[in-house]
Amino acid sequence: MQVNWRIIHAARNSFAVLYATCEREGIHLNPVDAPTGDITCYSLTSISAARYQKEIAEADCITVVGGPHATAAPREVAGYADYVVIGEGEYTLPRLLFNLIRGGDGRIPGVMTGDWYQTADTTVRLDAFPPFSEYKGYIEISRGCPFSCGYCQTPQIFGHCMRHRSVDEIARYTQWHSQSRFVTPNALAYGSDGVHPRFDKVERLLRACHNQVFFGTFPSEVRPEFICTMSLDLINRYCTNTLLHFGAQSGSDTVLSRLKRGHTVADVLTAVDLCRENGTTPVVDFIVGLPFETDEDQRATLDLIREVARAGTVHVHRFIPLPGTPLAHSPARPLLPETEKICGELALRGHLTGSWNDPEIRFLHSRQIP
Asked: What is the C-alpha to C-alpha distance for residues 128 and 130, in angstroms, rounded to an integer?
């Protein structure tokens, strides 16, 4: 059987991981630009799913779909795909492919087909699977998040308990390339429970990497309350990047509390000041148009955006209700005229990136990577 992987730019790291995983099991994933062969696999985000739904439904081959959107909305995806991989794919995808290659019906734990589904019976231990092989990818150092931010799919997909790849395994894979970038919900939470930092373990990790290391930049941002003199010293001592990327999301403590962000506006301002004092440029994420924010909440966010823009770069995107999240059924509220005006002015001056008007290009812009 010929097993293919549909090339989607937003899923390139998923391809690197699952190519390496399947390769180890003797299955070759052939990258293609359209569904073909016997089986074609997809990884979809909730932003990209609509673009590929018709293609998948009309494909003249067996279709297997995984990724964040498949996990968040499996019954929707099962309406146009033959098999839906729900949750982590490193163990489930090769198991499904072997089943299909041997003439099985694909009814295995972690896979939905038609109306049939059985919960996955495994949890991925990161050290058990390679982060990449032939196709370079980022090294995933941690998985899971203890927070429950209302807009985020991560804890729904990977759980609230953090799992970490070991220092030895991470260091081994950093030797494959001249530069290393990591995937994690919060780089500075490495080795910890995600709430109480363990900077001793972060230092052990960074000390073990002997190439150029980019840490705390996309796609391994950090949380503002983890930014302190000690963490900045570690980044300045061991890392190549001069930018530090973290999420503020709102300039209103009321909104942050309702989002269950677990930090305050004061934490954001402290993080920005510490970055400035330590010669690091902050890159700060904001969400505009949150469904329950008042006009005053949105103006407070604008005030914080302007304050951050004096010290670094602001990244803004329009709220999108993602399936599987607490705010899945809450539409974005309209933006104030001054929000659009100020975002536009800051963008023209080079202080702001992102998309505050068109949510469809939320992840399609060029992220700022040092």
From this structure: 7
Q: Which domains does the chain have, with CATH numbers?
A: 3-117 (3.40.50.280), 138-361 (3.80.30.20)
CB proximity list for 50: less than 8 A, separation 6 or greater: none
Condensed to tens digits (0 to 9), the pLDDT of residues 287-341 reads 999 999 999 999 999 999 999 999 999 999 999 999 999 999 999 999 999 999 9
CA gap 150, 327 in Å, rounded:
6
d(CA 275, CA 367): 20
The one-letter amino acid at 201: K
- Which contiguous run of DSSP H or E holds residue 119? none
Nearest to 80 by CA among 89, 88, 70: 70
Report which of 87, 1, 95, 67 is spatially closest to residue 40, judged by C-alpha positions. 1
Contacts of residue 277, Cβ cutoff 8 Å, sequence gap at least 6: none
From the list 97, 90, 84, 96, the residue with the least C-alpha distance to 3 is 97
Distance CA 43, CA 65 (A): 6
How many angstroms separate the Cα of 63 from the Cα of each of 77, 85, 97, 171? 11, 11, 11, 36
Model pLDDT, residue 360? 53
Give the C-alpha distances (Å, rounded to integers) separating 259 from 92, 121, 147, 264: 32, 31, 10, 11
Q: Provide the token pair at 26.
A: 């003797």
How many CB atoms are located within 10 Å of the residue 171 CB?
A: 19
> Among residues of the chain, what percentage have pLDDT more than 70?
96
